[in-house]
C-alpha cells in the first residue's frame, strides 16, 4: 500500500511539473480569459465561441454574462454585441478553419443554386468563382463592409428564389428519407416472409422423414425407390416454393414502387435523356456504315503481310505484331485492330462532345 501511495504521489508531482513547465500559450489555451478558470483544475469546463468575433469564453461565463440578453464581448477592445443563442462549441482547433467553415455555410445558404439551375457549365463555374471571391474577402478581412452589403442586397433581391431552392432541397431530403425508410421496411418484410417459409419447409421436412419411415415399414417398395421418390417430391416442392417466394417478392416490390415516387420508373423523355450521347450514332446502328478492305488472314499471308496487303490498310507497327506467333497463338488477329479503329471513329470517340452537341442541336 505504501508503494502505491508513493507512486500516486510521484504521478501527481510529475503531472503538476509538466503543467508548470508548459508554455504560456498552452496554459492560456486551457484557461478562460474572463474568469481565469483552468481546464486542468476543472476538467468538465467547456469553451464556447461566437461567430461574431470568435473569442473563446467558458460556458459558465457565457451563462453569467449573456443570460439576460445581448451584451458586449468581454474581451478588451472588442466591443461586439453578442447573443447567447449564437454561441457554439468549437469544432476545429484552428480558429481560422472554424471561421472559414462558418463563412462558407453563411454564404452557401444565400448563394444556394446548383448546376441544374444554369444553362451551361461555364455560367455555373462563374457563379462558383463569384462565391469563392466573397468567401476569400470575408475570411481575409478585405472590403468586408462592402461585401456584407452586397451579400445582404443579393439575399434581398433573390429572397423568393433562395426560399424556393431551400424548399426543393428540403423536399428532396424528406423524399430520400421516406424512400430509405420504405426500403428498410420492404427488406424486413421480405426477410420475415422468407423466415416463415423456411420454418414451414423445416416442418415439412420433419413430416416427410416420419412419412418415409412409416412407408419403409409398411410398403413393398425398396428403400432406395422410396428415398428416390421422396427426393423427387422434395425437388419439385422446392422449385414451387422458390417460384412462390419470387412471386411474393415481386408483388411487394410492385406495391413499393407504386407508393414511392423515387422508386418509380423514369418517363420516356427522362430515359431518352439518360441515353449516352455519341456524335455519329455509331453504336446505335445495327448495320455498319462501312465496308472493310480485304485484310490478310492466312498464316502465309501474315508472314508476308507487306506484300499481301497491297491495296489494304498499312501500319508497319501492327504488321510487326501480326507476324508474332505468340500473338497469333493467343487468338489475336490484325482484322480486329482495324475493325475496332473504324468502330471508334464512327462512335466519335475522341471528339469534343460538347462541341458536337452544339452543332447537332
Automatic annotation (TrEMBL):
Region (Disordered): 220-272
Gene Ontology terms: biological process: nucleotide-excision repair; regulation of transcription by RNA polymerase II
CDD domains noted in UniProt: RING-HC_TFB3-like
Coiled coil: 144-203
Location within or outside the cell: Nucleus
Molecular functions (GO terms): cyclin-dependent protein serine/threonine kinase activator activity; zinc ion binding
RING-type domain residues: 32-77
PROSITE patterns (UniProt xref): ZF_RING_1, ZF_RING_2
Annotated protein name in UniProt: RNA polymerase II transcription factor B subunit 3
Organism from which the protein derives: Candida metapsilosis
Species lineage: Eukaryota, Fungi, Dikarya, Ascomycota, Saccharomycotina
Amino acid at each position: 500500500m505504501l508503494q502505491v501511495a508513493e507512486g500516486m504521489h510521484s504521478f501527481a508531482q510529475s503531472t503538476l511539473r509538466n503543467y508548470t513547465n508548459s508554455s504560456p500559450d498552452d496554459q492560456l489555451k486551457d484557461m478562460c480569459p474572463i474568469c481565469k478558470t483552468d481546464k486542468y483544475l476543472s476538467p468538465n469546463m467547456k469553451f464556447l465561441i461566437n461567430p461574431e468575433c470568435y473569442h473563446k469564453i467558458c460556458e459558465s461565463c457565457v451563462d453569467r454574462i449573456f443570460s439576460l440578453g445581448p451584451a458586449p464581448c468581454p474581451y478588451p477592445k472588442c466591443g461586439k454585441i453578442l447573443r447567447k443563442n449564437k454561441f457554439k462549441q468549437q469544432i476545429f482547433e484552428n480558429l481560422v478553419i472554424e471561421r472559414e467553415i462558418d463563412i462558407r455555410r453563411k454564404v452557401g445558404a444565400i448563394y444556394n443554386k446548383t448546376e441544374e439551375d444554369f444553362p451551361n457549365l461555364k455560367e455555373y463555374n462563374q457563379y462558383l468563382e463569384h462565391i469563392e471571391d466573397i468567401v476569400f474577402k470575408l475570411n481575409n478581412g478585405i472590403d468586408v463592409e462592402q461585401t456584407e452589403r452586397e451579400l445582404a442586397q443579393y439575399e434581398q433581391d433573390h429572397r423568393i428564389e433562395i426560399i424556393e431552392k431551400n424548399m426543393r432541397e428540403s423536399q428532396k431530403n424528406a423524399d430520400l428519407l421516406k424512400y430509405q425508410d420504405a426500403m428498410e421496411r420492404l427488406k424486413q418484410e421480405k426477410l420475415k416472409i422468407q423466415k416463415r417459409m423456411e420454418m414451414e419447409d423445416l416442418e415439412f421436412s420433419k413430416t416427410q422423414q416420419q412419412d418415409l419411415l412409416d412407408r419403409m415399414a409398411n410398403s413393398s417398395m425398396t428403400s432406395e425407390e422410396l428415398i428416390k421418390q421422396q427426393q423427387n417430391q422434395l425437388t419439385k416442392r422446392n422449385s414451387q416454393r422458390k417460384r412462390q417466394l419470387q412471386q411474393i417478392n415481386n408483388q411487394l416490390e410492385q406495391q413499393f414502387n407504386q407508393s414511392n415516387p423515387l422508386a418509380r420508373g423514369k418517363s420516356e423523355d427522362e430515359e431518352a435523356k439518360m441515353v449516352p450521347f455519341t456524335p455519329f450514332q455509331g453504336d446505335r446502328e445495327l448495320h455498319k456504315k462501312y465496308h472493310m478492305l480485304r485484310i490478310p488472314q492466312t498464316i502465309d499471308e501474315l508472314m508476308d503481310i507487306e506484300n499481301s496487303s497491297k491495296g489494304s490498310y498499312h501500319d508497319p507497327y501492327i504488321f510487326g505484331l501480326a507476324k508474332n506467333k505468340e500473338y497469333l497463338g493467343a487468338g489475336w488477329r490484325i482484322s480486329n485492330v482495324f475493325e475496332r479503329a473504324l468502330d471508334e471513329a464512327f462512335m466519335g470517340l475522341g471528339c469534343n462532345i460538347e462541341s458536337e452537341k452544339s452543332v447537332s442541336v
